[in-house]
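Bumping my old thread because nobody answered last time. Still need a sequence for this structure:
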């Protein structure tokens, strides 16, 4: 009986270890507590690497006009800020308009993982860990960029997921890099004949089907950051 219990404990240990790693929302809550809630209005990016499924630490980049390069970085792990610094080199471009509107966040990193994992399964992309980046896109919309890595830490695909509605906006390394624009223009391709036209159509339809399934997944995992942060 003891051997059975010990074996069960060994199997359960990795799961408990994974659950101990904070999600992006939880890291932001730590930042809000230690740096002040106003700091959450100046977030440029949130990144985490080698998540399994969540990373051991998160790096949050804040807009800070008084800092070198106009930004400041804080690393969060184990429920606290473990380091805070100004980047050694200036950040290219301006952070104006690039700050995240946290009131529009409806997808935590755990939800982004669920959507990305399902998308990877549909496209038959095997992965071991994930890298996360949350930032704004060209339209100022918050977007999760989830990069899937194999056991050799080489990327096997990247998925761009809208953090407001959970839409899979584009992929890299899967579905031949299909985007929402490809799906919207799918009917314009009906006149493309032969093998090339057929392949493009199948890829576009597969991406469209994945988008529909991702919306269903989003409904199950969506989580308002405003509700989350105001519950503390």
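Sorry it took so long. Here it is:
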């Amino acid at each position: 009986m003891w051997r059975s219990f010990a074996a069960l404990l060994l199997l359960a240990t990795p799961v408990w270890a994974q659950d101990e790693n904070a999600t992006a929302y939880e890291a932001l809550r730590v930042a809000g507590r230690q740096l002040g809630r106003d700091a959450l209005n100046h977030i440029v990016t949130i990144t985490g690497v080698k998540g399994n499924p969540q990373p051991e630490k998160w790096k949050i980049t804040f807009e800070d006009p008084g800092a070198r390069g106009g930004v400041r970085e804080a690393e969060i792990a184990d429920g606290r800020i473990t380091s805070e610094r100004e980047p050694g080199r200036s950040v290219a471009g301006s952070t104006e308009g690039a700050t995240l509107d946290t009131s529009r966040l409806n997808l935590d990193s755990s939800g982004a993982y669920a959507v990305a994992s399902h998308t990877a399964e549909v496209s038959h992309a095997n992965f071991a860990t994930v890298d996360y980046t949350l930032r704004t896109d060209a339209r100022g919309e918050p977007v999760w960029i989830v990069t899937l890595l194999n056991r050799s830490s080489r990327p096997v695909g990247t998925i761009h997921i809208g953090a407001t509605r959970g839409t899979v906006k584009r992929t890299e390394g899967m579905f031949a890099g299909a985007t929402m624009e490809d799906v919207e223009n799918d009917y314009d391709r009906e006149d493309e004949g032969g093998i090339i036209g057929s392949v493009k159509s199948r890829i576009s339809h597969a991406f469209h089907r994945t988008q529909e399934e991702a919306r269903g997944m989003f409904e199950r995992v969506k989580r308002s950051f405003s509700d989350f942060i105001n519950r503390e």
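Confidence is low (pLDDT under 50) at residues 1-18, 176-200. Let me know if any region looks off to you.
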